[in-house]
Amino acid sequence: MWLIQPRPNYDDFRRLKNDEINKIYSSVVRSSNGALMIRRDTVMVSILLFCGLRKGELISLQLKDIDLIKNELTILGETSKFKKTCVLKMHPTLVLHMKDYMKDRRHLKTEHLIVSVKGDTGLTRHGLKHWVQSLIIRSGVKFHLHQFRHTFASSSARQTSMCSKCKR
Questions:
Q1: Are 167 and 53 in contact, with CB atoms under 8 Å apart?
Q2: How far apart are CA 64 and CA 68, in angstroms?
Q3: pTM to 2 decimals?
C-alpha cells in the first residue's frame, strides 16, 4: 500500500507580500536623503529580505563580514541567537545593491557595515527602530522587522536551500 505524503504549505501568513515589498523598496528610493542613504536603506531591506537576519545580527554586521568575491555574508556566533557562525550565499540582487553601497561608503572610517545617518558610526537599535517607523509611514505598509524573516523563511522553504546549522 502506498502512502501519499501531504505537501507542506510554505505560504506563511506573516510574510510580506510582493506588492508590499515593492512599496517598501519604492519608498526607499523616493524618500531617503542622499545617494549614500538610498543605497544603505536598499541594502538593509535586501539583507533582511534575502538573508533573513534578526535585528541584532543586522546592526552587528561589520565590513569584514562581507565577501564580494565569494558573494558571502558571515553572521558571527557572538551576534547570533544560536551562538554559531553562519556563512550565507548572497542573492544576486543583494550582491548588486551591496556593491553600489560599498562604493558610496568607501570614504567612511567605521567598520560597521550599516552606518548611521548622523555620522561615521554604526546604526544603533534605536536608529533601526526609527528607520522602521519612518519606512512604515513613507511606504504605507504596516510591518515589523521580523516579517522580513518570515518572508525569507517562506521563500527558502519553497526553494529548500535553508542552512540547517543556523536555522536559515
A1: no
A2: 10
A3: 0.85
The secondary structure of the chain as a DSSP string is -PPPPPPPP---TTSPPHHHHHHHHHHHHHH-SHHHHHHHHHHHHHHHHHH---HHHHHH-BGGGEETTTTEEEE-GGGSTTS--EEEEPPHHHHHHHHHHHHHTTT----BSSB-TTSSSBPPHHHHHHHHHHHHHHH-----THHHHHHHHHHHHHHT---TTTT-
Look at the domain 18-159 and name its fold. Answer: hpI Integrase; Chain A (1.10.443)
Q: Are strands 72-75 and 66-67 parallel, antiparallel or unpaired?
A: antiparallel
Residue spans per domain, the chain: 18-159
Task: Give tens-digit pLDDT for 47-73.
Answer: 999 999 999 999 999 999 999 999 999
CA-to-CA distance for 145 and 129, rounded, in angstroms? 9
Q: What is the pLDDT of residues 123-145, one digit of tens each?
A: 999 999 999 999 999 999 999 99
